[in-house]
Design a protein that fits this description.
This protein has about 120 residues and is mainly beta.
Length: about 120
């Protein structure tokens, strides 16, 4: 992961920028009350077959690889306390490769309170 962290300098309010690769690990299961042999009304496949197809799609065509961009800022309150925020963006490689643009892009915002 590439990381530019200036908190080791004498900056009063450290900022950090970073890029990396994220893996979105997900796995579909049958919903409560659905039996594996229940038919799909539209395709006549079984629920078990549908879950297998969904899980196969999750892990094909780079659908699980998400490059990550992060920006964080911390304001130093005292020698022991910092407060700040963080923004992350995850870019869906599988969606881009499949021609669907940024469908599936993930954004994350967080507030942080840190004690040294």
């Amino acid at each position: 992961m590439l990381n530019t962290d200036d908190s080791t300098k004498s900056a009063p309010s450290p900022t950090m920028y970073s890029v990396g690769i994220g893996i979105l690990a997900r796995y579909g299961i049958l919903s409560n009350g659905v039996n594996s042999d229940d038919p799909n009304r539209d395709t006549n496949s079984t629920a078990s077959e549908d879950v297998s197809d969904i899980n196969g799609d999750f892990f094909s065509g780079l659908n699980f690889v998400y490059p990550e961009l992060t920006f964080s800022y911390s304001y130093i309150l005292s020698t022991k306390w910092k407060v700040g925020g963080e923004a992350r963006t995850y870019i869906p490689l599988g969606s881009l490769a499949g021609g669907n643009g940024l469908d599936g892009m993930i954004f994350s915002l967080a507030l942080k309170l840190s004690y040294k």
